[in-house]
Amino acid sequence: MSGAGKIMLVGIGPGSVEHMTQRARDAIAESDVVIGYVTYIKLVADLIEGKEIIRKSMTEELDRAVSALEAARAGKKVALISSGDAGVYGMAGPTYEVLFQAGWTPEDAVQVEIVPGASALNSCAALVGAPLTHDFCAISLSDLLTPWPTIARRLDAVAMADFVVALYNPKSGRRTRQIVEAQRLFLRHRRPDTPVAIVKSGYRRRQNIVFTTLDSMADADIGMLSTVLIGNSNTFVRHGLMVTPRGYANKYDMEEGGATREGEKAGRSLSTGLLGWLETLQAEHAAGDSVELLAERHRLPADYIRATLEEPWEATEAAATEEGEA
Amino acid sequence: MSGAGKIMLVGIGPGSVEHMTQRARDAIAESDVVIGYVTYIKLVADLIEGKEIIRKSMTEELDRAVSALEAARAGKKVALISSGDAGVYGMAGPTYEVLFQAGWTPEDAVQVEIVPGASALNSCAALVGAPLTHDFCAISLSDLLTPWPTIARRLDAVAMADFVVALYNPKSGRRTRQIVEAQRLFLRHRRPDTPVAIVKSGYRRRQNIVFTTLDSMADADIGMLSTVLIGNSNTFVRHGLMVTPRGYANKYDMEEGGATREGEKAGRSLSTGLLGWLETLQAEHAAGDSVELLAERHRLPADYIRATLEEPWEATEAAATEEGEA
Known about the structure:
Enzyme class (chains A, B): transferase
Number of strands of chain A: 15
Protein name (chains A, B): Precorrin-3B C(17)-methyltransferase
Domain Tetrapyrrole methylase (chains A, B): 6-217
Keywords (chains A, B): Cobalamin biosynthesis, Methyltransferase, S-adenosyl-L-methionine, Transferase
Number of helices of chain A: 11
Oligomer: homodimer
Helix content of chain A: 25-40%
Largest sheet of chain A: 5 strands, parallel
Radius of gyration of chain A: 24 Å
């Protein structure tokens, strides 16, 4: 075979063809070789007839990347498929690591393209309601490549800071205590009745969705194909839908037809937004409150409080035009 | 018009038609009415000819949801379009809030469907390399609906816990100091040369990508259409690509052809994974180290250390079959 080879890292989304992007379909269609974990190969079976197929087991990520590079060096177009998004705990990282190791650069004859897709957190969220309407994190509970203290520190930090959290790789046949430890860390900061949704095989034939709460999470049926979504302190479940409010109730009176609350303006920062908060901070400090007291009251580090107090802010900022946003 | 109405919350991805899912295209095709922010309406102009179009400004999310419900109650099929994913800071949340307020339940004649798509973090990551190969967070710097101390606490927590972070709504004409404060909070925990990528209008006509570092981040050209990606402590930029290693180097000797490191096994948890770490912890405690000393050494809360020490772990766990994972 002649001509330059290409490696396309293709995120196929949750697994049903209709939730795949056009570019993902096209990338698979134009490939000579398709490489992937056996389960993912099955999900795109209809699209790969007549192509060379290289099936790999779950732990052979680096092998998959090496095989892709070999085929591309031989002039072939290779689709390296990941479920969800190729960049989210997917093949994009290991592939670049292998390519760099082999001396590849972007000037190389072998081209690389990453085709983004909806990750598990996007598709699971769509199935359970609207849990990701506010700040969120993804944490993998797999300790096959990550030391447990690193994972535990992350769980602790985001539980404390009230993020919505998606747990990837929550449990396997061998790894059963990680989810128990995650629950333990979360319960230090969050209410026991915090809503939790567990989505197994979302948008696939065996899709299964369970709603539970933080204190019962570890007893639920969770496996390798599950994603666990833990709400923040405002997340609620109503009529079987998990919803995290965006914060409209901070600005608008939702009961009263959406009138703006006193002191708030549509299209402007909240009165407790950055500039309003800096004003409050300066007033409190001027009234004699110490930096340490302010740090405790606002639950932020003292040296951060001190630094913001020291930097004057320009009142003119507030006069600039707002393009508008939520 | 007769028949039951439907509201479809459609995530159109980054904006180019080829990165939209088939279901997103189909949902728009089968709709009678398309509602969205003017910019998003322009992005799908080719797909909506002949349909009723309701253009809304950026701050009118609740209005968009109310209009959608009115049209659906009149028996129309409505596509409420969001850029990226409809569930990630998108219209899914506000829509359910408005529907619940109006007494809607899933048994209502008006059906609701959420169509997931690639969010800004997925598409920006694909354009800059492979930054999301390990745990990550999304934080919106907009204080229009969220008090600044909430945002600041989240920035502080994830900077400390070494997440890769995607900043949404980093800056606007009026909101210019939020990114400076975010930088200040990050620099308390992260190296000044931490890689940062700023992606503006990814996959759109005016796409612009800038690589910078944490200490220069606030001086970069950032606007309403930018997403800011901040790496973790292992993220590097090589040949113009931002990559976060998955952790293979913890288990394999990447220089030596990928041989497994001493004490590590392919397909098994790291020696510093949960069970190995618990063993270490118990040995250190048995040797006389206090809970407080262990907490400081492992940088985890003392009460968490105490609780894990108190719970015995079953050696039999290690004998279960591993399906394999990364």
